[in-house]
Amino acid sequence: MHYKAVFHVDQKDGQVFTLALNNVINLLNAIPGQEHDLIVLLNGPAVSLAAREEAGSFMEMIQGLAAQGVRFQVCENALKRFEVNRDSLIGECEVIPAGIVGLIDLQNQGFAYIKP
C-alpha cells in the first residue's frame, strides 16, 4: 500500500506542531518499509514555526522526518500576511503559493487530510 497524507498545521502553537510531527513519526513507525508520500503543510500563523529562530526545538524531529522523505510546505501568502521573511525559513521547507490551494490539490490527489 502507498500511504499519502497531509498534516495541516495552521496555529502558531508549539504543542500543536509537536503533535503533528509526532503523528507523522507514529505513522512511519506503523508502516515500516511501506511506500509513503507525507507532507506537513503550514499556513496561517503557523508559518512562523518554520523560521529558524522559532524552529530550534523542533529541528531534530524535522530533520529526522525530512531524512525519511517527509516534505514540509509553507504558504507564501501566510509568510507575507504574518511578515515572516522567506529567507528566515529552515532549509527543509518548500514554499508554495497558497496553502489552501495546496490542501485542496493534495486531497484531490488522494491524500488523507490530518488535522492534529
Rounded mean pLDDT score: 97
**Secondary structure: number of strands:** 5
Number of domains: 1
Based on CA atoms alone, the radius of gyration comes out at 13 Å
Runs in which pLDDT lies below 50 for 5 or more consecutive residues are none
Largest beta sheet, briefly? 5 strands, parallel
Estimate the helix proportion, in percent: 25-40%
CATH fold description: Hypothetical Protein Ychn, Chain: A
User: What's the name of the CATH homologous superfamily?
Assistant: DsrEFH-like
Shape: globular
Structural class: alpha/beta
- By CATH reckoning, the class would read Alpha Beta
Q: Give the N-to-C terminal Cα separation.
A: 23 Å
The CATH architecture can be given as 3-Layer(aba) Sandwich
The proportion of strand residues reads 15-25%
Task: Give helix and strand order, one letter per element, not per position.
Answer: EHEHHEHEHE
User: Count of helices?
Assistant: 5
Biggest sheet strand line-up: 4-3-2-1-5
Secondary-structure map with pairings?
Blueprint: E1 2-9, H1 14-30, E2 35-42, H2 52-55, H3 59-67, E3 71-75, H4 76-81, E4 93-96, H5 99-108, E5 112-114
Parallel strand pairs: 1-2, 1-5, 2-3, 3-4
Provide structural commentary.
With 116 residues, the chain is α/β, with parallel strands linked by helices. It has one domain: DsrEFH-like (Hypothetical Protein Ychn, Chain: A, 3-Layer(aba) Sandwich). The protein has 5 helices and 5 strands, in the order E-H-E-H-H-E-H-E-H-E. It has a 5-stranded parallel beta sheet with strand order 4-3-2-1-5, with helices on both faces.
